[in-house]
């Protein structure tokens, strides 16, 4: 057998299920969203699910807001963690271990923990003596607790990626800059930040797309209404009213479209960043 | 994580307070969310304005030994392993195949295998649900299939990274010395890729172990795993003790596995 055919055959057990599930899921979702694959009754073409009273647009806006805020928070804190880990002594090693250890914590657990920490009568409010002005982070319209949960989990991920990508070069370059008289702040902004930029861009993109499609935190920590895309889709999907199914699929596909658009825009942008091949 | 050489530097004229302050804030950022979790798991009573629990008890942790929780833990373990096995094996095969393919083909195969990262899991699940129901695939294999597809990008990526620094000459030398292809696999390839395999399997296990949304939507309530029990505890009010105990039960096994992975392998060659 030709080597190419042999290699394709070896890859096939992985490629086929992925290709099948992916195309099957997307095509089935599209057909269902257009009323062409009803659970009961006759198929009837309709775009009603795609323009349901602007609700889909609102959900998209909320999802983009949550994902964007979470991405900014994760990238900023993740960079600070990486900078600290890469340039100081023993405590930095402990921080590196703790941060890496928080990566495998499931989002569901992190969301539950944020609930216990940030709710009106949560741990943080108690530490501050239950002030009347404590912000409504859990269940509030700003999705503060959900964004903090994403930021907490994903900043550890960003830090892991950054430390991995800069570990070899950061030490020597920082040392050289220090010898030339650069302050800690200058080293961070003019040595580490440019060095981190490509990896920072890629991890920001990963975080944005991930948080856009993540259900647990906005579901547990967000307000009942309005809803971001994943919460709306899952609620409609589980609805007893079977006519809600097309809307659920349209909502799911909206998240796919926004995610793909973000990836396209992100890759275009990353190409312009200096040092990115 | 890669090995790195931290350097301690003191900038001329730099303020001495910034670094400890930053370090303290970062430690607080990472550890603070875990504090109420740990306190609640051992609290007997913890009324609103009190900063610390008034009394402690092991009731929350004892709830982990209830039959339904034990069953759910078992189901999560089985699900994690059922995803880890195919995702690791298929990921390794695919990574080897990509290495042998000409550039264009390799890129295409890699694109397909990484594509699930771009699709939100709930969208993947909802779309495939109607097909899986139509094909009368039972709940458990359906969940395993969808989660394996979700886990494959991670395992493929891990093996691709490991193979980037893998030297084919080791296998060639073994063959020249008369080793059968089976011996090459068992004595050369598998030992050289053991760490990458462990990491890939760990990530794939995590996908199954911590999944909530796929089990909820495809399993349709028939498949009760630890995350599902935790989800229903966390979404109801007044369940802080149980939520905290279940959360710890979900965190501890992966952390133990991670610690095992971090220990340097005993079979390091001279």
Automatic annotation (TrEMBL), chain A:
Topology term for the membrane: Multi-pass membrane protein
TM region(s), chain numbering: 7-31, 62-87, 94-118, 156-180, 192-213, 248-270
Location of this chain's protein in the cell: Cell inner membrane
UniProt entry tagged with the keyword Membrane: yes
Alphabetized Gene3D superfamilies for the sequence: MetI-like (1.10.3720.10)
GO cellular component, one term: plasma membrane
PANTHER family reported in the protein's UniProt record: INNER MEMBRANE ABC TRANSPORTER PERMEASE PROTEIN YDCV
The protein, known as: Carbohydrate ABC transporter membrane protein 1, CUT1 family
UniProt source species: Arthrobacter subterraneus
UniProtKB/TrEMBL annotation, chain B:
Any Pfam family matching the protein: BPD_transp_1
Keyword annotations: Cell inner membrane, Cell membrane, Membrane, Transmembrane, Transmembrane helix, Transport
Any one GO BP annotation for this protein: transmembrane transport
Listed transmembrane segments: 21-43, 75-99, 111-133, 139-159, 200-224, 244-263
Family statement drawn from the similarity comment of this UniProt entry: Belongs to the binding-protein-dependent transport system permease family.
Stored PANTHER family: INNER MEMBRANE ABC TRANSPORTER PERMEASE PROTEIN YDCV
Domain ABC transmembrane type-1 residues, every copy: 73-261
Topological type in the membrane: Multi-pass membrane protein
Gene Ontology cellular-component annotations: plasma membrane
Family matches, as Gene3D superfamilies: MetI-like
KW Cell membrane (keyword) present: yes
Locations listed in the record: Cell inner membrane; Cell membrane
Keyword hit for Repeat: no
Identification of the protein by name: Putative spermidine/putrescine transport system permease protein
Organism: Arthrobacter subterraneus
């Amino acid at each position: 057998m030709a080597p190419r055919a042999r290699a394709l055959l070896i890859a096939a057990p992985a490629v086929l299920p992925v290709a099948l599930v992916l195309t099957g899921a997307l095509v089935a979702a599209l057909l269902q969203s257009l009323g062409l694959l009803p659970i009961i009754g006759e198929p009837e073409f309709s775009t009603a699910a795609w323009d349901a009273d602007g609700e889909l647009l609102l959900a998209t806006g909320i999802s983009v807001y949550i994902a964007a805020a979470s991405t900014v928070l994760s990238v900023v804190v993740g960079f600070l963690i990486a900078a600290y880990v890469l340039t100081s002594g023993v405590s930095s090693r402990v921080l590196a271990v703790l941060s890496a250890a928080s990566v495998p914590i499931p989002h569901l657990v992190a969301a539950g923990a944020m609930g216990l920490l940030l709710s009106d009568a949560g741990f943080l409010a108690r530490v501050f003596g239950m002030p009347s002005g404590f912000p409504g982070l859990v269940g509030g319209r700003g999705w503060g607790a959900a964004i903090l949960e994403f930021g907490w989990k994903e900043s550890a991920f960003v830090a892991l990626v950054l430390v991995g990508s800069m570990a070899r070069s950061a030490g020597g370059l920082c040392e050289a800059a220090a010898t030339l008289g650069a302050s800690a702040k200058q080293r961070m902004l003019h040595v580490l930040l440019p060095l981190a930029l490509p990896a920072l861009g890629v991890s920001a993109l990963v975080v944005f797309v991930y948080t856009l499609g993540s259900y647990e935190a906005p579901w547990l920590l967000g307000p009942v209404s309005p809803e971001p895309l994943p919460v709306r889709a899952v609620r409609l999907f589980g609805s007893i009213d079977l006519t809600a199914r097309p809307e659920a699929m349209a909502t799911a596909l909206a998240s796919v479209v926004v995610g793909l658009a973000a990836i396209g825009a992100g890759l275009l942008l990353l190409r312009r960043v200096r040092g990115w091949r | 994580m890669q090995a790195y050489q931290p350097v301690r530097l003191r900038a001329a004229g730099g303020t001495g307070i910034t670094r400890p302050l930053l370090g303290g804030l970062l430690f607080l950022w990472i550890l603070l969310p875990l504090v109420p979790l740990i306190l609640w798991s051992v609290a007997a009573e913890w009324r609103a304005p009190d900063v610390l629990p008034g009394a402690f008890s092991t009731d929350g942790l004892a709830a982990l030994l209830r039959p339904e929780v034990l069953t759910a833990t078992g189901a999560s373990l089985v699900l994690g392993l059922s995803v880890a096995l195919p995702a690791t094996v298929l990921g390794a095969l695919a990574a080897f195949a990509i290495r042998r393919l000409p550039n264009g083909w390799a890129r295409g195969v890699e694109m397909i295998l990484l594509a699930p990262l771009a699709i939100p899991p709930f969208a993947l699940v909802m779309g495939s649900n109607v097909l899986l129901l139509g094909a009368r695939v039972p709940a458990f294999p359906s969940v395993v299939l969808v989660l394996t597809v979700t886990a494959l990008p991670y395992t493929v990526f891990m093996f691709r990274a490991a193979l980037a620094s893998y030297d084919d000459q080791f296998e060639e030398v073994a063959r020249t010395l008369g080793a059968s292809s089976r011996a090459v696999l068992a004595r050369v390839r598998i030992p050289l890729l053991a760490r990458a395999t462990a990491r890939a399997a760990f990530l794939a296990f995590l996908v199954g172990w911590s999944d909530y949304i796929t089990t909820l939507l495809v399993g349709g309530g028939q498949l009760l795993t630890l995350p599902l029990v935790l989800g229903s505890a966390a979404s109801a009010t007044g369940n802080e003790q149980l939520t905290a105990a279940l959360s710890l039960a979900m965190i501890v096994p992966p952390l133990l596995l991670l610690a095992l992975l971090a220990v340097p392998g005993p079979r390091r060659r001279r």
